[in-house]
Specification:
Layout: H1 2-19, E1 29-30, E2 33-35, E3 37-39, E4 44-52, E5 56-59, E6 65-70, E7 77-78, E8 83-87, H2 90-125, H3 131-164, E9 166-168, E10 173-175, E11 185-186, E12 194-197, E13 202-209, H4 213-220, E14 231-234, E15 246-250, E16 260-267, E17 279-285, E18 292-296, E19 301-303, E20 306-318, E21 326-343, E22 346-351, E23 358-360, E24 372-374
Parallel strand pairs: 1-24
Antiparallel strand pairs: 2-23, 3-18, 4-13, 4-17, 5-12, 6-8, 6-11, 7-10, 8-9, 10-12, 13-16, 14-17, 15-16, 18-22, 19-20, 20-21, 21-22, 21-24
Helix pairs in contact: 2-3
């Protein structure tokens, strides 16, 4: 009995399912198309960078003592040789005066020893003096000469210490906050008084990969520099620094752990607008002149670190009324691409699509491979026609709005 019951239930289910209407196919997705075409573009490669002084020195005392004078304004521009600090000079002045007096005494002794030696040498020619007396006079003369030399060296040392009690700027630059105040005791070679750094010109340091090294070597040697604005700078407030830079130094070695090497570009800094340590963006004008495929950035979809676009492909679909007949439709096909530099709202495509491909720009979130698309409901449908690729391309994008690579 139960077996017959279940057979009847299954028969009813099969009957109902056979008479159930099939769900209608998904309607075409309305999209816009963009015909990929090669064009010449100018853009910048961007590198995170930091400004750096070409020369920078910590001021440390060479003599010990108390600070008795500070002769500058913190943060001001100072000139080479300008007096900055004075350490108590009294002891060093007294030591200098004493060394000078000792030198005068030594010079007087030398003069006396020279006269004695000359006198005994003459008397010796007349056999009028003992040989021993002459020898003693000659030795006394040599000792007097050495005493003068020693006194001269002591005077030089005293003069050096006296000079070191005044600390001056070793080059033109900007001085920072003083680390000591009036009356502070400073110790030789340990106490940092202040820091001076050069400010015009100013260096900008950034890192490149070892693969780019050969290219930057050519830029440094001037082999590829065909434009004036090869190196420009974007400041933290997004303004463009008004002066152009020039590559000056490439570091001696590649860091084996990161595979990068440091490069320095030097910029004029007549108004001292650049200070060491500023985080900025160095822009290197790309000089590639060959045409590139450029499409709108919003057409690119990122998935698991890979990038894709959808292109429109003409195909045939069966009619609903008569399956033996077909009609043309547009179908979305997914393509994996390799994007390059992003330029304003567009992006360069290095690999994955060809010139003339009709790239789907809008509605990509609703697509998958095989989706039927519709361009008739969009006002920009004319762009979908292959003939749109024959129209004259727009001018190169505004490179002042360049963004970073994806």
């Amino acid at each position: 009995m139960s077996k017959v019951y279940w057979i009847l239930v299954m028969a009813c289910l099969i009957f109902v399912s056979c008479n159930q209407k099939q769900p209608p196919p998904n309607p075409p997705v309305p999209v816009n198309l963009f015909t990929a075409k090669p064009q010449t573009v100018l853009y910048y490669d961007k590198y995170p960078a930091n400004t750096a002084a070409l020369s920078q020195v910590d001021l440390r005392p060479e003599v010990q003592g108390y600070i008795t004078e500070i002769s500058f304004i913190e943060g001001d521009h100072v000139k080479k040789g300008q007096k900055l600090y004075e350490i108590d000079r009294q002891l060093y002045q007294e030591a200098y005066d004493q060394a000078k007096a000792n030198l005068e005494v030594a010079q007087g002794n030398l003069k006396q020893a020279q006269q004695d030696a000359d006198r005994y040498t003459y008397l010796n020619t007349q056999d009028a003096v003992a040989k021993q007396t002459l020898d003693h006079a000659v030795i006394a003369l040599l000792n007097a000469k050495n005493m003068v030399i020693a006194a001269e060296q002591s005077l030089k040392m005293a003069a050096t210490n006296l000079n070191y009690s005044e600390i001056t700027a070793s080059f033109d630059g900007t001085i920072g906050f003083s680390q000591v105040k009036l009356g502070n005791m400073v110790t030789v070679g340990q106490t940092i008084l202040n820091t001076i750094s050069t400010d015009d010109p100013m260096g900008v340091d950034f890192l490149i990969s070892e693969k780019q090294l050969a290219h930057f070597e050519e830029l440094k040697n001037g082999k590829k520099q065909t434009i004036d604005s090869l190196f420009t700078l974007t400041l933290p407030n997004d303004s463009t620094y008004p002066y152009q830079g020039k590559i000056s130094v490439i570091d001696r070695a590649v860091d084996p752990q990161t595979g990068t090497i440091r490069v320095r570009v030097v910029f004029p800094n007549p108004t001292y607008a650049l200070r060491p340590g500023i985080s900025c963006v160095l822009r290197v004008h790309n000089q590639e002149t060959s045409p590139k495929l450029v499409i709108p950035s919003k057409a690119v979809v990122e998935l698991m670190g890979e990038y894709f676009v959808y292109i429109a492909k003409d195909t045939l679909a069966h009619n609903k009324e008569d399956s033996t007949k077909t009609h043309p439709v547009l179908m979305a096909i997914q393509k994996k691409v390799q994007p390059g530099q992003t330029i304003a709202p567009n992006v360069i495509i290095k690999k994955g699509i060809n010139a003339g491909d009709r790239v789907i720009v809008d509605g990509v979130q609703s697509l998958h491979t095989g989706s039927v698309i519709d361009i008739s409901k969009n006002p920009d449908a004319a762009k979908a026609k292959p003939d749109a690729g024959k129209e004259k391309s727009d001018a190169s994008p505004d490179t002042s709005k360049v963004r970073k690579n994806k």
